[in-house]
Specification:
Order of helices and strands of chain B: EEEEEEEEEEE
Structural class of chain A: mainly beta
Radius of gyration of chain B: 13 Å
Largest sheet of chain A: 6 strands, mixed
Shape of chain B: globular
Number of helices of chain A: 0
Number of strands of chain B: 11
Order of helices and strands of chain A: EEEEEEEEEEEE
Helix content of chain A: under 10%
Helix content of chain B: under 10%
Oligomer: heterodimer
Distance between the termini of chain A: 38 Å
Largest interface: A-B, 23 and 26 residues
Number of strands of chain A: 12
Strand content of chain A: over 45%
Radius of gyration of chain A: 14 Å
C-alpha cells in the first residue's frame, strides 16, 4: 500500500492566487513527521515545511502552511499569493520515527503558476 | 544545519562502466541515505549507510549493483556498477540531524548512461 499519496499530477494557479496541494498518508506509527519539498528543474530539494504528528497547531512558514488533519490522515500544502518562481515539482514525504530515519515520498505534483 | 556536497554534480557514462558518487557532510551523522530519482519520477530510497556496519538495502536494490562505503561519520560513497541506460537518474544523499526537523539533501548527481 502507498504510504504517501499525491493525487494531483499537475496543478495550475494564477499568479497571486492561493493553491492547495493534496497529500494523504498511511502509517500505524504514532510518531511521525510530514514534510513538503520543492524541486525546481535544477533538481535540488528545497525544504518548505514540517509537521510533527504530535504538533497541536498547523505548521506555517511564510507563504506556506500545512493543513494537517490527523483523523483524515491528510497534510495538504497551501501556498498563498503564488509567484512565478513557485513553478516547480512539489513532493510530500513522511518519516516514521526520529530524525535518523528515512523519508518516504509521494509521487509529486507539478505546479505551474500562470502570469 | 547540515551542508552536504556531492561529487560529481553530473556525468555522462558509457554502458557497462561504473561510477562512484561521493557525499560529504559538514556534521557527524549516524545515518546517511541514498536516493534515486529516475526521470519524471519521485525519490526512491536505495539504501541506508550506517558508519561501522554494512549498508541496508531496500527491496529491488542489491549490493553488487550499488555498493556503498561509509568510512567515517561525515562521508559516504555510492557506486553504480555495470551501468545501463536505465540507471540514468539523479542520485541524492540525505541526512537527518538530531534537533532539526528538516531532512537535509545534497545537490544531487545527475547521471546519464549512453
Amino acid at each position: 500500500a502507498q504510504k504517501i499519496t499525491q493525487t494531483q499530477p499537475g496543478m495550475f494557479v494564477q499568479e497571486k492566487e492561493a493553491v492547495t496541494l493534496d497529500c494523504t498518508y498511511d502509517t500505524s506509527d504514532p510518531s511521525y513527521g510530514l514534510f513538503w519539498y520543492k524541486q525546481p528543474s535544477s533538481g535540488e530539494m528545497i525544504f518548505l515545511i514540517y509537521q510533527g504528528s504530535y504538533d497541536q497547531q498547523n505548521a506555517t512558514e511564510g507563504r506556506y502552511s500545512l493543513n494537517f488533519q490527523k483523523a483524515r490522515k491528510s497534510a495538504n500544502l497551501v501556498i498563498s499569493a503564488s509567484q512565478l518562481g513557485d513553478s516547480a515539482m512539489y513532493f510530500c514525504a513522511m518519516r516514521e520515527g526520529g530524525s535518523a530515519r528515512q523519508l518516504t515520498f509521494g509521487s509529486g505534483t507539478q505546479l505551474t503558476v500562470l502570469p | 544545519s547540515a551542508v552536504i556536497s556531492q561529487k560529481p554534480s553530473r556525468d555522462i557514462c558509457q554502458r557497462g562502466t561504473s561510477l562512484t558518487i561521493q557525499c560529504q557532510v559538514d556534521s557527524q551523522v549516524t545515518m546517511m541515505f541514498w536516493y534515486r530519482q529516475q526521470p519524471g519520477q519521485s525519490l526512491t530510497l536505495i539504501a541506508t549507510a550506517n558508519q561501522g556496519s554494512e549498508a541496508t538495502y531496500e527491496s529491488g536494490f542489491v549490493i553488487d549493483k550499488f555498493p556503498i562505503s561509509r568510512p567515517n561519520l561525515t562521508f559516504s560513497t555510492l557506486t553504480v556498477s555495470n551501468m545501463s541506460p536505465e540507471d540514468s537518474s539523479i542520485y541524492l544523499c540525505s541526512v537527518g540531524l538530531a534537533g532539526y526537523n528538516e531532512q537535509f539533501f545534497g545537490p544531487g548527481t545527475r547521471l546519464t548512461v549512453l
